[in-house]
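User: Hey, my collaborator sent me this sequence without any context and asked if I could get a structure. I don't really work with proteins. Can you help?
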Amino acid sequence: MLKVHDTLSGKLEVFEPINPGAVGMYVCGVTVYDRSHIGHARALVCFDVIYRYLKFIGYDVKFVRNLTDVDDKIIKRAVDRGVPAQQVSEENIAAFNEDMAVLRCLRPDLEPKATEHIDEMIELIGELIDKDLAYEAQGDVYFAVDKLPAYGKLSHRKLDDMMAGARIEVDDRKRHAMDFALWKASKPDEPAWDSPWGKGRPGWHIECSAMSSKYLGQPFDIHGGGNDLVFPHHENEIAQSEGAKGCTLARYWLHNGMVNLGTEKMSKSAGNMMTIQACAEEYGGEALRYLVVGTHYRGPLDFSVERLQEQKKGLDRIYVCLTRADEALSQNAATVDESTKAKYVDDFREGMDEDFNTSRALASFHDALRAMNRHLDAHEWSQAAGCREALRDIATVLGVGAQDPCEYLDSQKHQTLSGCDLSAEEIEALIQERIEARKSKNFARADEIRDDLKARGIILEDSPSGTTWKTA
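Assistant: No problem. I've predicted the 3D structure and written it out in C-alpha cell form, which is a compact way to encode the shape of the chain:
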C-alpha cells in the first residue's frame, strides 16, 4: 500500500487517487533563463522516479510539468545580451531537453509553456476580480491575501507571522503588504500582451494555477516541486486556484529537499552551483542520477565532487556485474526462478511504498546484484536469472543500471584517452595479458603491466567480476 508524505497535512497519508486507477500529477518546472544546475537535477530525478513508480504499479499517469518562458530573469538576460526574450527562452529550452536526456529522465506527458496560456491566465484573474479576491491598480492586478482566511495553510504560517521580519517592497498601490502580483503592467521593450487592464504580462504564480487546471482539472492528485517553492509559490497557487474555483487544488503536496555543498546550501547567489551539463561531461548524467536516488527525496542531498566520483566508480562496477551476468546467462539458458525475482522486487516495492524511499529501494537493487553474483559463482543459473530480471524491473523505476551493459562499458572505454599513447584496444590486450600472467603465477609480469599502465594514466580496478580500467 503506497503512502506519501503530504506537506499540507504534515503526515504520511495512504495514497488514494481521486479517480481509481488514474493519477494526475503537476510538477513545477524550470525558468528558462540559463542552464539547469544540480539543484534542478534533484527535483527532475526525484519526480521522474515518482512518475516511473506510479506507472510501474499500474496507474495511468498524466504528468504535466510547465516551462516558465516569461520572467524578470529572462527579460534581464535578453537585455544584457541585446536579443529578444523569446530567443533566450528557446535556447534554454533546447539546453534543458539535453539535460533531461543525460539524466535519463522520461519526458512528461505535457510540457506547457507560460506564453502559450496567457488567455487562460487572464480568464482566471478575471474570476478572482469578480469574487473580490483581486483588484486592479494602475494596470497591475494583485491578489488580496487578507480576503482568504486559509492563506498560509501549506506553509503552516499565519499572515501576521509572514509579515514579521519579511523584506517587503513598499508599494502604496497594494491594499496589504503581502498582496502579490497576478498581472504586471508592461514596461518599455518588455514582452507584453493585451488584457482588460492594459498591456502587460502575467505574474509568476498565476501560470501554474491556469495550466494545472486546464490539463488536469481541479482538484487533481499530486502537486510537486522543491521545498523552496512551498512559500510563496505554492502557497499563492493554492490561494489563486481555490479562491477562483471554490475547491481543493491538489490532494497531495510533495516536496523534495535541497542540495547542500558541505554545510552550505547550494545556490546561484552563493556562486557554488554546478550545471548538469558540466557534471555530465565529467562524470556522466547517470552517475549524478545515481547520487540523487541514493537519498530520500524529502531529505537534504549532500553534494561533493568526491561523492560523485564514487558514484561513477560504483556505476561502472554495476555494469561490469550486469555484463558478466548477461554473458553467462546467454551461454547457460535457464528458466527464471520467479520466487527469487519476487523476493527482491517485493522488497523494492516495500521501500518505494513508504513515501518513495529510493535509498531503501537502491539497497534492494544492490542486494539483488550481490545475490546474482553468488548464484553465478555457484552456477545456479535459474536463481541468477531471477536476480537479473529483478534488477531489470528495479532499474526501470530508478533509472540506474537500465542501459545495455555492453554499450555502457563500451562508451566508457572509448572515451578520449587524454595524455595516453594507448588505444582502448591496446589497453584491453594488456589487461588480458595480465590476466594470463596471474593465472600462470607470473605476478612480476602482472605487476609490471599494472604499473606501466598507471604510469601512462590508466588505472586498473580488480573485483570478483573482473578487471575494469579508467583514465587517471
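In plain terms: The longest strand covers residues 220-226. You can pass these C-alpha cells on to your collaborator as they are.
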